[in-house]
User: What shape does this take?
Amino acid sequence: MILAEGNFGFHHGKTAMGVIRFGTDKVVAVIDSTQAGRNVREWLGDSGRYDIPIVDSLNAALGFLPRADALLIGIAPTGGRLPDEWRVMILAAIRSGLDILSGLHTFLGDDPEFAEAAQRSGVRLVDYRRPPERNETAVGRLHGLGKRVLLTVGTDCAIGKMSVALELRRAATAAGRSASFVPTGQTGMMIEGWGVAVDRVIADFLQGATESLVEEGERRGDWVIVEGQGSLDHPAYSSVTLGLIHGATPHAMVMVHKPGMADHDFDHLPERRFPIASLPGFIALHEQLASTVAPSKVVAIALNTSLIPDEADARRIIEATEAETGLPADDPVRFGGDALWRRIDAAVEALPWVASADEAAAAVAG
Assistant: This one.
């Protein structure tokens, strides 16, 4: 079951949405008393796997069969803090024999009351954002021979960088490519079962952690699609974006953008505005900053057209974005990623530094 009290939806409830859409575990129910009686199908469509009731309480969720064996905290609030009012429900879930799966910055395993209750009930407290014990700076690692590294970046937070990466991995696999997805955040880790939440890593070691993640991604596939985080001009979350760019040293990047959003998602100071950057200049900025460590190019725009309900209008915006940027554009979540993937594949293979990177990797291997 997924706890998303007061927050189920595409924004603060993005962890819930991501796990439901891309995860493999069965979700029995979503807990959100403000939307009890509704069904997840209203958001994600009529697929049978989205036939998930939204209920008002833990007890209601425990009444469904098959009985859930874990409670997943499905929100990604600003600062990643546990809402105080959720403590009672989490304790009740622990005492009901449920593992607790959390991607918050508040580590449940370090809370004495939760830890004692979990020990008595014999359940696990899993904190996905707990950083790895390994702390190493970047070493300038070269990518392996024949490997292609792609990083999703974006004009804001919580606009679909993970979803785009997963859709592109699916499309690449369908096209016969050996492809892996590299999780760099808690929701991706919940879906894939490995990775590191890089926003919890000490700044000096962020690039080093990213290098290690990409190395593991290369063991899993020839095309390595790295999940992006934050946004370069976000007033709170820009540092993690730069760390991923310089740690992953991607051959290419895909820019994720949400038409219809005028300002950054930043609710610390609601009276201040931080406008979303225009695409052409922002694309150039990413390429310039990446090139200070290794050359990279934005090769496509992945649009999140969820604010445009009419499909014809969404397609017109996609066409306008292509005209504005001169790059392939599409909404791979709404319309599928196959067409965009084919254009990305061709664009990356044509980059001059891809061949030189293979030559360098072959020289090291030799």
User: Anything to note?
Assistant: The two ends are 51 Å apart (CA to CA). The longest strand covers residues 148-154. The chain has a mean pLDDT of 94. Residues 203-220 form the longest helix (18 residues).
